[in-house]
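User: Could you walk me through two proteins back to back? I'd like the raw sequence and the structure tokens for each, with a short line separating them so I can tell where one ends and the next begins.

Assistant: Of course. Protein one, sequence then structure:
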Amino acid sequence: MGLQGGLIDWDGVIAKTPERQFKWFREWARQNNIEFTYDTLEEFLAVYNKIISEKSAQGVYDAFGLPCEMSNPQHPVWPAYDHFKATNPVEMYDGIEQALIDVWKLGRLNANSSRNQTMRLAINTTNSWKSIYPDLVRFGIDYLFDSYCTAETLHNFEGSGNSAALHKPSKVSVALMLHILGSEGRTTFHLGDTIGDLRASYDIRRHGGINSETLITIGAAWGFEGRAVLEKGYSANDSGTIHFTHIIDHPSELPKIIKAYR
């Protein structure tokens, strides 16, 4: 059986957000007359990635001593951040547009009569659809995707209105996307840039399901965590160390991997 679907992360895979986050925190520190001690993107990400995986975005602001209340839409950080984003639009990674187009083409119907359904692609992110859709259109790649799981989707699964009850990446979002795409874990790939994405794709149990599902995982080494971290994998108790199925250093490597499963 060929691939039925693919999940693709937004931050650090399609959108060049690590660089923009670095610039934003440096700028917010400047506006608040607070010393920002990180001179390079690498130094910043080493700290940022650790905090974001353990505590969430609010924890990053707290660790850097920067004013922010994630739960307060009236806090001054938000208009400042909106202005920063408007004047510093996010860019796509070099090569990702062509890679996605090539993958999309591989998933179209063709002369092979044994395949009568396309491969569906979806965005999997906790950004809001409202925030990423304009960039998808600006990049000219919106037509490549059949569905998405975003902040609006995950809001339906928050515990008692507590947004901290569900963190991304989450197996909830992956299980939900499998359902929406109508695909099985073993015939779905997940392109992500963090160990969290790997965790979310392993041993998924859908509602009412007896057997677990694990996706084909592809680590994007150009994103937030980098190859050295992705290669370590993570310990899954009795299952030992879980690793990405593939790790790639550049988007141009993606179509060849997908073609091998077709």
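----
Protein two, same layout:
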Amino acid sequence: MIGIFDSGLGGLTVARAVMDELAGYDILYFGDTARTPYGAKSPETVIKYALENTELLLSHGAKMVIMACNTASSVATEAVTARFDIPVFEVITPAVALAARLSKTGAIGVIGTRATINSGIYEKKILEQRPGARVHSQACPLLVPLVEEGWLKKPETAMIVKKYLHPLKTRQVDTLILGCTHYPILKKTIGHKIGRRVAIIDSSTAVARSVKAFIDGHPPMEASLSKTGTARFLVSDITAQFKTTAQLILSREVALEHVSL
């Protein structure tokens, strides 16, 4: 079983991408809805949550874990890989590799939570892969709450997206990394506000392809993963809005299971 966790429902974009790339493989998703958002939490708290979330997924049968949360990926990857002897995937590296390859001018924009942007992880990894690139980062703290509330088509959301993207437009970025797995849910709005000439990098698709490549190259792991087409969705707090938005993202009925950490 492939385990996936996020602070809330944003990681469902990763779950959807994994289900598309690895049809038939069993998926176990955990959304930490009782403690969302992670972006405003301290690194120490996020690390604690990430370790607890991974332990939960393993206790339910996961053989590998995708940290489908940019905030957790930016500060907790080292702690999780040190604690657990399993394949662990984060959403930052695959997105960076794609952006570094696609950008024509080297002007790359990154949007994410405050914790992700303040960590500097995207700039560090981009410059490792493409020295000389000009990285312009923008924290967008209001976008996760807006997505979690289901305000996907509200004019207020479009106005806030426009305000956040304005500094990146003035710097003429030609590639934009969606540095939070909630943001692909607003991809149409973001694309409209940043302009059609800017390539948008969706970390959910990038990490799903990375996971598929890993499984294809590791037959023992491939053989250990169950393939009954089952997808389970665990949450630390059940809300009506989560279910509604989850079904919109996944294009299917979703049965939520409440779990305690």
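Residues 43-59 form the longest helix (17 residues).

Let me know if you want the two compared in more detail.
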